[in-house]
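Board notes, transcribed. Complex of a protein with cobalt (II) ion.
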Amino acid sequence: MHSLLEGLKLNNRRWAAGKLAVDPGFFTRLANQQSPEFLWIGCSDSRVPANEIVGLDPGELFVHRNVANLAPPQDANYLSVLQFAVDVLKVKHIMVVGHYGCGGVTAAVDGQRRGLVDHWLHPIREVYAENRQTLECIHDDRERMDRLCELSVTRQVKNVASDVFVQDAWARGQEISVHGWVYSIADGLVNDLNVSVSSPAELQALF
Ligand code: CO
């Protein structure tokens, strides 16, 4: 265990040195301020590393991750991140990024009891219930869960775009777009669900 951590510290020294070799001002510049243009709301899954997937450096992506990439309107953690991103950082784009094969999405609807996480995943069961007819026409289990991943992301886009922080920002004339993506662990590619909204009118048209 100890040597595993020593390995990480060694990696860290090498990584920082590598950054400095390319750009000597890299860390001093970041120490002064962050000005990311993007907020990423993604899953905690270790296979979905936000910055790496979209090739962004430290300072370029504000990140919020939780189990199954949810944006629940009552969650103080997510709301704090959203408000800071919108009001202070003034990000231009918010991406809700799900991923195919999400264990959280499957766990939400497999009928097994796991404890606290069953409460956390409740919004996904609601999405399932709202789309039961469509989903139950899909007979392949994996395909049905993939579709549920997409539907849940779309629902989170709606949550973010209808939140008062985003609504008020739009009313002030601030430019923000909310997007829904699903990442494929199997090939490393992002699938844009084309549910982007940039104004109250677009939100209304989409939902
Ligand atoms: Co996941």
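The chain has a mean pLDDT of 96. The pocket of cobalt (II) ion is lined by residues 43, 45, 68, 99, 102-104 (CB under 6 Å).
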